[in-house]
Specification:
This protein is about 50% helix and about 10% strand. It is α/β, with parallel strands linked by helices and about 290 residues long. InterPro entries: ICL/PEPM, Pyrv/PenolPyrv_kinase-like_dom, Pyrv_kinase-like_dom_sf.
Length: about 290
Amino acid sequence: MLTTPASKRQSLAARLAKPGLLVAPGIFDLISARLADRMGFDLLYMTGYGTVASYLGLPDAGLATYTDMLARASAFAQGTSTPIIADGDTGYGGLLNVAHTVRGYEAGGVAGIQLEDQEFPKKCGHTPGRRVIPMEDMVEKIRVASDARSSSDFLIVARTDARTSLGLDEALRRAQAYAQAGADILFVESPESEEELARIASSLDKPVLVNNVEGGRTPVLPKSRLDQMGFKLAIYPATGFLAMGKALEEVYSMLQRDDAPRSLEGKLYDFEAFSKLMGFEQVWEFDKAHARD
């Protein structure tokens, strides 16, 4: 049974106050969202890369609009019971845009928004060519975001991409400034070693998020090690869509063979179970209740 946005935010806030690492799988469409929602995670993460790819078939390079992303975030929130933190890119413009974005995402039902300090148009954090805005400008964005939300339970994740172009010291300096400006969770993107990860986790006073991208710039460590370091949230934004891409490529290639039915055995989700996952049971019950004799 779906819960209200307020109850989702309150449950996430309560979970953040408890010890232990929160693990959030990346969701990128409503199939991935529904699957993840039923598995007992404390939190889901709406990946910008995966959402833009699945919705528009485009790279995560600032091509999706606020309207695009708000529509997806709202649909994910309405279709799930688990709290969601959604990628809000750079806030889609200046300070007025940031305030509008925060209000829209909060009204859309997600539990929090991620904002980053890249120049517009932004790029995926594990790709080259990223540039960041002055720290003072991002501080103002975080202040505006904090003021714009109607509830303090709506979380603001402040991400800095400064590590790649300006070094780890500058990235940590920015993260600390964003914390003072009102961010609830801090996100230093693309550290490049286990030693850097440990330093990030130990240097910041607010909950710290680690981004685990298979094949990206950051080593993907065991959850127990991340917890030991002191990280509070571990997101896995790419795992789902990379797994989907691999699986689809495999089964689509099987369709080209003469023995496709036999080769597909054991590779597919059960059709009846998938229909139930998508909500057909409610349709069947409705039809029974309103059937004419």
